[in-house]
Amino acid sequence: MSDNNNYDAEDIQVLKGLEGVRKRPAMYIGDTGKRGLHHLIFEVLDNSVDEALAGYADNIGIIFNKDNSIQISDNGRGIPIDNHPEFGKPAVEVIMEHLHSGGKFDSKSYKISGGLHGVGLSVVNALTEWMIVEINRDGIFYKQKFSRGEKVSQPEIIKTGDKTTGTKITFYPDNKIFDFNPKEAIFNISIIISRIRELAFLTPQAKFEIYNAITEEEEEFYYEGGIKEFIEYLNKDKKPLHEDIIYINGSSEVDNGEAQIEVAMQYNQGYQSNLLSYCNTINTVEHGTHTTGFKSALTRTVNSYIENNMQKKYKDIVLSGSDTLEGLSAIISVKHPDPQFESQTKIKLGNPEVRQITSQIVNDKLTQFLEENPQTAKKIILKTLNAKKAREAAQKARLLIRRKSVLDSARMPGKLADCSSNDPTECEIFIVEGDSAGGSAKQGRDRTYQAILPLRGKILNVEKARLDKILQNNEIQSIIKALGAGIHNVEEEEYNIEKLRYHRVIIFCDADIDGHHIETLLLTFFFRFMRPLIDNGYLYMAVPPLYELKYKKTKLYVFTDKEKEEKLKELEKKYNLKNTDSIKVKRFKGLGEMNPDELYDTTMDRKTRVLKKIIYEDFLENDLIFTKLMGKEVKSRKKFIIQHYNDVNMLDI
Ligand code: 0RA
């Protein structure tokens, strides 16, 4: 066979590879909805970030174009453009057109580390309607266009003699693959910006410049202080326990290179712990060996500090892991040449050697920090001792609750009007603000599958209370009991989603400020203690209508002022009216004022009601939002109340 034939054979293989990506995109990028679209951006971005982490780039640009295409550029080395000996074409074409296993290029000199999800640029290329690559390298400007995985032009090559280097990639997602309306914004820019901010904290080497051509807004993220600044950001609405942020770093040799460990931490006066861990800028949501190493070193160090430096009366105290975590915000960031992830989704770090390395570094450097900063050390020790006391109190409270069988689904709270069906998939529970609305809902409901739990007044703010108080709160106890699946985020407690008694948990509050407040208190509770409920898509909010429009026999419910105007116009047209004066408009004031039938027809009837499904895309932002929300700052609380309506999906169910 001639060389030429060989090349053809390889080419066919290549096409098969990227065809596979187009046939089963979800296998490579998770899904073909918004998340998948975002994935394309993050994949390209991660290649630029790798250049910055390796010390070759210090500027990364992201442009959201008006036509919904995206441009990502960096001033790194530029993708190699020289002829690839094996394939007989420019290396950039090989990188764009060939599927590389795990994102690693076969030949060492062309190694691209796996990006966020390690699928590589070729996967992005395969899923785009078009992709333009521009490279400055070796004194040459190189530009080439690709479409759906293949080049559609020969490269344009201009000799510039320039020393500047870099890569610019512009692409537009393929509408044949992704579910989007090309006439609307197809990316959620705030989610992307939030990831870029996170990348900027983890990549202090680079400045990230964002330009949104639609709004003409510019934003820049550059954090020379790296994860130390990240902690400042996370704690900005929390009251710190000590001023100085503890920063620890170190490295150790591993196979194929060096592992670097960085930790930044600061205690605040709250009770939640907020631990974020990363490996090669990937947020390891399920943590792994780096976090295990950190936690064990933290407990060990604090315990030895007590033993070696505290007064006699403290010496016998032994803190447990959770005591040293209370009120702690910490970031653990590992850079590893050969990361192993335990799950498919790449969110749990598995490298066994990392546990020992992290634990050793944290142990040595934290001990040193505490010895050099006795004032801060004292504050931290007292905080952890208090946590131990509270834990013991909570344990007692929990035992008491168990005896009263609060967490036992056999005994339901007295206020609950349960439904008759036992099939959770068809059952729903309305958590209703106030007794009067609760009464109407009880009378109006379809009792075969709709249960009602009225709440009396405000529930406890779980952001500001300790566990023992939270578990003793009546309203919270009723919710836990009625749902039957327990709580998580509490030692020894498992959330048991199989035991959940309703697959629609519907928060049902008035559309006024008080109602929104209760709504947010409930959301905070669910976010902190029943997160699997949200993860599984079981949490909803009812949307009572604002107005009823009536003309002769036609009756309509509308949910916004804008909708009211639209519907009035429609009715006017339909009935050939001179104006809209003869259409009766009734404004609903609150749930409590609706009679049972009205309440059912407008808000509870599966055929006509509107529910909002509660989702969250971004843990980091949510954590910040909830902290802010339930802290003292009323201004930001109001802001969230408005904002979060944009974050929930409107579903007609
Ligand atoms: C392969 C090899 C080298 C760099 C890159 C790829 C590279 C890829 C991207 C994607 C976006 N920006 C990028 N910058 C660089 C290194 C080749 C060398 O040794 O010079």
CATH class of the largest domain: Alpha Beta
Whole-number total of structural domains: 4
Based on the coordinates given, report the CATH architecture of the largest domain: 2-Layer Sandwich
Measured distance between first and last alpha carbons: 62 Å
Descriptive terms for the model:
653 residues; alpha+beta; Heat Shock Protein 90; Ribosomal Protein S5, domain 2; Rossmann fold; 4 domains; 9-stranded mixed sheet; 6-stranded mixed sheet; 19 helices; 38% helix; flat; disordered N terminus; binds 3-[3-(1H-pyrrolo[2,3-b]pyridin-5-yl)phenyl]propanoic acid
Q: How is this structure best described in words?
A:
It is a single chain. The protein is α+β, with helices and mostly antiparallel strands and 653 residues long. It folds into four domains: 19-221, Heat Shock Protein 90 (2-Layer Sandwich); 227-391, 2-Layer Sandwich (Ribosomal Protein S5, domain 2); 407-544 and 588-615, Rossmann fold; 623-653. Helix content is 38%, strand content 21%. It contains 19 helices and 25 strands. The strands form five sheets. Strands 1, 2, 5, 6, 7, 8, 9, 10 and 11 form a nine-stranded mixed beta sheet that branches. Strands 18-17-19-20-24-25 form a six-stranded mixed beta sheet, with helices on both faces. Strands 12-13-16-14-15 form a five-stranded mixed beta sheet. β14 (274-279) and β15 form a beta hairpin. α11 (435-444) packs across α17. Bound molecules: 3-[3-(1H-pyrrolo[2,3-b]pyridin-5-yl)phenyl]propanoic acid. 3-[3-(1H-pyrrolo[2,3-b]pyridin-5-yl)phenyl]propanoic acid binds at residues 47-48, 51, 74, 76-77, 79-80, 110, 112, 167.
